[in-house]
């Protein structure tokens, strides 16, 4: 069921971004985020489509050998696959294209029609998730047993960076990038408050080599009913080493030869033990658990440095670089004083015409073999970043 209706009144966020919440025809949330210098008027068209009811919430099953939870979301099989530009489902609606967004927009965020998690959630004023068999907290999910399943409560949202049909985050203006960052922070706050949500994950998949099925410039936000396996391992490493582990890593990398971009508040570097041919991490200089804890100055600098980084990696080759840009945030309820917000950007591209495939050792055993020394990768990226301007 959809959440309680948001207030119709717009609100002003940081950097002068205006937030305008509304609803799609089937009850899903849609939120417009207007640039501070927007040319759009305040009015937004209503979604007049006749839509089918939303699919039932997926079910997740536990792998008893690892404790991992696998969401079985069959409705995702029906999602759009590389449609022509005139039928782009993320473009503003037109007479010939009944897309997901009724009006022209700067940035738009809406609930995914066929999500991997949700929509079985209580309202924001509730205390527990809904569904036939929802998780009963983290202790419940940590238990092991054969045949265990739970309702995949949570939320999956689409973040449209632009109304244009082609591009990516890196092709946006500074102002637009800043609007998206404001939207990430706003949605992180809202999604973290939902009953049953344990972690919020903004990310962008770019390029068909990654598996992208829409060329429209967009990202996603997943809200999980558990702490993801990757985050669990990091939390365990913090517990085994030091609560200042992220600061220790940042100090170690800033003193070395793998830094590729540095500002007053953020540093980007190729990590010491990089797995991928292209892998860049970016950390804030002070501890913040997620986007909600960043201040205006940090968001301003991030918009500039992140655009520079993305444009730099596109200068490595003659064609755009496929990547996953993953913004790791602290879990909602644990490790917030030690787990730091950070970017992990990875690409399988190891040469102009070659990709790294995860075959036997990596895919089956999780034992990685790096093709390019991290120091070499960092030097190449620094060269590519020379001359990049906003």
Name the descriptors.
globular, alpha+beta, single chain, HIT family, subunit A, 7 helices, 390 residues, three-stranded antiparallel β-sheet, twelve-stranded antiparallel β-sheet, 2 domains
Give a written overview of the molecule.
There is one protein chain. The chain has a 12-stranded antiparallel β-sheet, sandwiched between helices. The protein contains 7 helices and 17 strands. The protein has 2 domains: 11-43 and 54-225, HIT-like (HIT family, subunit A); 231-385, HIT family, subunit A (2-Layer Sandwich), CATH 3.30.428. By secondary structure, it is of the alpha+beta class. The protein is 21% helix and 21% strand. The N and C termini lie far apart (43 Å). InterPro entries: GalP_UDPtransf1, GalP_UDPtransf1_His-AS, GalP_Utransf_C, GalP_Utransf_N, HIT-like_sf. One of its GO terms (biological process) is galactose catabolic process via UDP-galactose, Leloir pathway.
Query: From the coordinates shown, what is the CATH architecture of the largest domain?
Result: 2-Layer Sandwich
Q: Could you tell me the CATH topology label of the largest domain.
A: HIT family, subunit A
The low-pLDDT segments are 1-7
Distance between the termini: 43 Å
Sheet of most strands: 12 strands, antiparallel
Q: How many distinct folded domains?
A: 2
CATH superfamily of the largest domain: HIT-like
| Helix run count | 7
Helix/strand class: alpha+beta
What string gives the helices and strands in order? EEEEEEHEEHEEHHEEEHEEEEHH
Rg (CA only)? 21 Å
Strand content: 15-25%
The residue fraction in helices comes out at 10-25%
Mean pLDDT: 94
Number of DSSP E strands: 17
Q: How would you sum up the global shape? A: globular
Major sheet strand order: 1-2-3-6-8-10-9-14-15-13-12-11
Q: What is the level 1 CATH name of the largest domain?
A: Alpha Beta
Pathway: Carbohydrate metabolism; galactose metabolism
GO biological process, one term: galactose catabolic process via UDP-galactose, Leloir pathway
Enzyme class: transferase
Keywords: Carbohydrate metabolism, Galactose metabolism, Metal-binding, Nucleotidyltransferase, Transferase, Zinc
């Amino acid at each position: 069921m959809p959440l309680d209706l948001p207030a119709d009144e717009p609100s002003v966020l940081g950097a002068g971004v205006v937030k305008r919440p509304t609803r799609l025809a089937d009850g899903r949330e849609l939120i417009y985020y207007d640039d501070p210098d927007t040319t759009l008027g305040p009015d937004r068209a209503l979604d007049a489509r006749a839509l089918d009811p939303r699919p039932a919430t997926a079910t997740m099953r536990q792998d008893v050998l690892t404790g991992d939870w696998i969401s079985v979301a069959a409705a995702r099989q029906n999602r759009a696959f590389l449609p022509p530009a005139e039928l782009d489902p993320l473009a503003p609606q037109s007479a010939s294209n009944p897309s997901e967004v009724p009006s022209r927009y700067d940035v738009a965020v809406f609930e995914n029609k066929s999500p991997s998690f949700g929509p079985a959630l209580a309202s924001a004023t509730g205390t527990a998730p809904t569904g036939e068999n929802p998780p009963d907290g983290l202790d419940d999910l940590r238990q092991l047993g054969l045949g265990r399943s739970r309702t995949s409560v949570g939320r999956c949202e689409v973040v449209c960076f632009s109304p244009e049909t082609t591009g990516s985050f890196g092709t946006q203006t500074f102002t637009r990038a800043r609007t998206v960052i404001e939207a990430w922070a706003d949605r992180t706050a809202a999604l973290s408050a939902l009953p049953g949500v344990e972690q919020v994950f903004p990310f962008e998949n770019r390029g068909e080599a990654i598996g992208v099925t829409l060329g429209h410039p967009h990202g996603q936000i997943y809200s999980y009913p558990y702490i993801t396996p990757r985050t669990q391992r990091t939390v365990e490493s913090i517990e085994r080493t030091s609560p200042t582990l992220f600061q220790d890593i940042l100090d170690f990398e800033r003193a070395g030869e793998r830094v590729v971009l540095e500002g007053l508040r953020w540093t980007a570097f190729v990590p010491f033990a990089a797995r991928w041919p292209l892998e860049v991490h970016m950390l804030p200089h002070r501890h913040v658990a997620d986007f909600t804890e960043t201040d205006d100055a940090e968001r301003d600098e991030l918009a500039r440095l992140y655009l520079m980084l993305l444009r730099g990696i596109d200068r490595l080759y003659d064609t755009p670089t496929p990547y996953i840009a993953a913004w790791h945030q602290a879990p909602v309820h644990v490790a917030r004083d030690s787990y730091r917000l950070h970017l992990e950007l990875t690409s399988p591209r190891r040469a102009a015409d070659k990709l790294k495939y995860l075959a036997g050792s990596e895919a089956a055993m999780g034992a990685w073999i790096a093709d390019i020394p991290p120091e070499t990768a960092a030097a190449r990226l620094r060269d590519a970043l020379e001359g990049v301007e906003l």
